[in-house]
Write a structure and sequence with these properties.
By secondary structure, the chain is an alpha+beta fold. The chain has five helices and 15 strands.
Length: about 230
């Protein structure tokens, strides 16, 4: 039965995304008070990545500025060479027209993307992030002080490689990453990862209204209209 529903969701997702090319993406305002025209969806999956929820894709909660989409997809392609065994999972992004995106405080003008943390078992095996309806599609997971949840632990090295790939892809596309929001108590472990390199954008140093332990929020910077 589960496979039948998954097939139905895939069909619905394909139908919802099938459309003729629209106007170029134009963002307005700010991530916390804005909107977007000409937004495009992130692909629901690829060779080494997938959306956090096919239902989220059907509901059109995966739209971004077209330049952001290109950077995200380019970064995943770069990762295929370095993290061949990891299936990366992205989270929520925004509505096709932007605006209020509850329960998020931002994600309003197509420049925000949540990425679920890459995880491995404590025996070192790469596994897919366990997003499901029972844990609020991954947003309900609570990792401990060492970045562990049950038998899983955050793969800080894979995360560092992903951030590096995003940084390189953004620079190639002529845009920037404004900042990355990630649990401050984990940032030392991220910087200690073997793959960590100094990036061209900051890790937001302060706690925000909700703990960002199971995902990292990437805010892109593109000139938007007021």
């Amino acid at each position: 039965m589960a496979e039948v529903w998954k097939f139905r969701l895939l069909v619905l997702a394909a139908l919802s995304l099938k459309s003729s090319p629209g106007p170029a993406s134009t963002c307005f305002g700010t991530p916390s008070k804005g909107r977007i025209e000409g937004a495009v969806p992130l692909p629901s999956d690829g060779p080494n990545f997938k959306a956090y929820s096919y239902m989220g894709v059907v509901l059109r909660r995966n739209y971004v500025h077209e330049k952001v989409r290109d950077v995200v997809v380019d970064a995943y392609a770069r990762l295929e060479k370095h993290v061949a065994d990891q299936m990366f999972v992205y989270g929520e992004t925004g509505w096709p027209k932007g605006g209020d995106f509850s329960p998020h405080k931002t994600h309003q003008n197509g420049l925000s993307v949540d990425f679920m943390v890459p995880v491995r078992t404590q025996q070192g095996k790469a596994v897919e992030f366990p997003a499901s309806v029972t844990n609020k599609f991954g947003y309900g997971l609570e990792f401990d002080a060492k970045g562990r949840w049950e038998d899983l632990e955050i793969d800080f090295n894979a995360m560092a490689l992903h951030l590096q790939a995003l940084d390189e892809a953004a620079q190639k596309s002529g845009i920037r990453i404004r900042h990355v929001i990630f649990e401050p108590s984990y940032q030392g472990m991220l910087r200690a990862a073997p793959a960590w390199k100094k990036l061209s954008f900051p890790l937001y140093p302060h706690k925000v209204w909700i703990k960002h332990d199971e995902h990292y929020h990437v805010e892109f910077q593109i000139a938007c209209k007021s």
